[in-house]
Amino acid sequence: MARYMDFVVSYRFIVLVLVVLFLVVGYFDVATVDLVVDHHLALVHDKVAYFSKGSHDYYRRQPSVYDEVCRVQFIFAGSKHDYNNFPTLQSWIRFADPKCPIEFLRTNHPFVGVLTTAEARMFHDSAFLPILQADMLKFFAVYYLGGLVVDLDVQAIKPFPEAWIGKDSPHSSCDVILGIEANCYDDECVKTMVRKGQVPNWAMFVRRPRSQFLGDLLDFVVAKYESMAPLDKDAAVQEVAGSGTITDFVQQYGNFTTPHYQRPADTKTPRGNLHRWGILHWWRVLEPAPVFAFPSFRRILAASSLDLCH
């Protein structure tokens, strides 16, 4: 009996010790998480304040050490009007190098598990706005996976990636490719845009994952969201992770006023609402050999002439 009581006491003592250890470890884990969250929020808010001062040589992310990737990515978030109709997909099957995977990304993609605390909070909090969540998926795709992300109404018209960054292409040294949606800088033509010289997010290319520039842009977007949260269903998504915020960042990051390269527009309108948009704008920034440009594709738009072509 005495031996049994000793066993019970020993067992209870062990359980008590384990409970105490669990509580202690849990307390420090929670404290650590709180510290990390507070620190990250301070960084991203500081980034907004920093860029608002117009500095061009500030980085929080380290330069990418990853190898080049070749991939084409389409984003699915929220309901779509017709899952059985992808009129531009055939163009990517035709023009993309067979070695480059073509992938449809959903909100449960594995890279969601490696988001920072602030990125994850923004991503999940925006679930009630599928358009905003899709915009965030585009950023995550090009930052964490690299390659090309395009909307489902974008049509390829030249080989990818050879015509984009191939050794004989004029932008062979580019690490990042973006573009200007319309060569528009006056009050009249900007009525259909959110910014003059608007930079869109419906087509973005990054040569390798974890681009330093894209990392800074992602931080800037998250910081903008934190300054506006909580959002409601009528939130102006273009001012959160859309063209407005991207354009603001590009201007503050590089203060670009003169294109590195420009090609005159082709105003011809082939086949219905497939308009040729022949403007190429390139800017050099402080990352190793990055350039922003319009690559080789068209966009299908019912009432606009915003197609891209090389």
TrEMBL record:
TM region(s), chain numbering: 7-28
Q: Which UniProt keywords apply?
A: Membrane, Transmembrane, Transmembrane helix
| InterPro entries assigned to the protein according to its UniProt record, in alphabetical order | Och1-like (IPR039367)
Q: Which terms under GO biological process does the entry name?
A: protein N-linked glycosylation
Q: Name one GO cellular component term.
A: mannan polymerase complex
Which is an annotated GO molecular function term of this record?
Answer: alpha-1,6-mannosyltransferase activity
Q: Which PANTHER family match?
A: INITIATION-SPECIFIC ALPHA-1,6-MANNOSYLTRANSFERASE
Protein name, entry field:
Alpha 1,4-glycosyltransferase domain-containing protein
Q: List the source organism.
A: Aphanomyces euteiches
